[in-house]
Amino acid sequence: AQKVTQAQTEISVVEKEDVTLDCVYETRDTTYYLFWYKQPPSGELVFLIRRNSFDEQNEISGRYSWNFQKSTSSFNFTITASQVVDSAVYFCALSVGASGGSYIPTFGRGTSLIVHP
Amino acid sequence: DVKVTQSSRYLVKRTGEKVFLECVQDMDHENMFWYRQDPGLGLRLIYFSYDVKMKEKGDIPEGYSVSREKKERFSLILESASTNQTSMYLCASSFNSGGETYEQYFGPGTRLTVT
What we know:
The structure holds two protein chains of two kinds.
Chain A: E1 3-5, E2 10-14, E3 19-21, E4 24-26, E5 32-39, E6 46-52, E7 59-61, E8 64-69, E9 74-79, E10 88-96, E11 106-107, E12 111-116
Chain B: E1 4-6, E2 10-13, E3 19-25, E4 31-38, E5 42-51, E6 54-57, E7 64-70, E8 73-78, E9 87-94, E10 96-97, E11 100-101, E12 105-106, E13 110-114
């Protein structure tokens, strides 16, 4: 069985601060995929990143960066110089790889990020 | 641009009514999902479908049924709505390729209130 833990329920920061959202996962599969999604106040979840278990390279996209560490089963997300528009609920998710059939992702409970001006 | 649409953003129904929530995707995705989202509980999977007419129960299927007659459309049915089904309902779709798993695309959600 798969499990995703986002221990931080809510984080509150002031604009321009850096913030890291933690994600710890559990799986026995050697092939798996990790995702981050953003849910702004409007409600629609938006895909941010996908990472497979064989690619441990960190990724940077503008102010966003992701640190994937298999040794600690973590896939943390950092926002540099946070902005008010970053205020949202962020979900980490895990899917295992398989051939055929369906792939059901396991979601963490989400971290609510509040960025104050 | 990929799109998942849901029939209503807000819906108010009475206890005991039969409720239909419709979801349509235009990406030719094999997989479609229905979730409900409640404060503090994250996303909980109700049902999913990996092909036309195929469906499988998720974590909380009780009180719900689904229908997938066409690849692009996945309907969630509340046979007899109850107040504990008041929630935000999210539809999503995804595709498979070469044995790999890809991201889900979500609709805007339907906030259902049962009175």
